[in-house]
Amino acid sequence: MPETDKLHLDRFVPYRLSVTSNAISDVIAGAYRTLFGLTVPEWRLITILAARGRETQVGLGAATLMDKVTVSRASTALVGRGLVARAPNPQDGRSQFLSLTEIGRQLYGEVAPKALALETELLSGFTAEEVSRLVDMLLRLERAAVRLQPV
After folding, report:
1. Dist CA 116 CA 94 (whole Å)
2. Which CATH class for the 39-114 domain?
């Protein structure tokens, strides 16, 4: 087999992205779980709801690229903890709007600065220009991956 046909995992971008994502998620999950009792999916929903005000579970799944079971479990847990409230969706009787409660907004106000500090620490070895280029490249990769998904 020619050398060009061999798959070298240490240079295979999808593998590097997956390993890097898992490593970062583990650090973040540990911090959120220890400090706030949140899972990564729960934190993602809280963040989207803080930005959007309210959203359906379908909208949350689309925004986070999490599957509907993960979104359902995370939203149920957040509702159970009193961090998120459900309200009927007048346009679609089968769905509900989710929004942060006052307690959920307070929690977001505590978690967000810690998340930003963690990001700053993770990216401390990069210049602002490198971070900007990295974010741009990640967005381009995400769009390419979405285009390649089966319909």
Report:
1. 36
2. mainly alpha
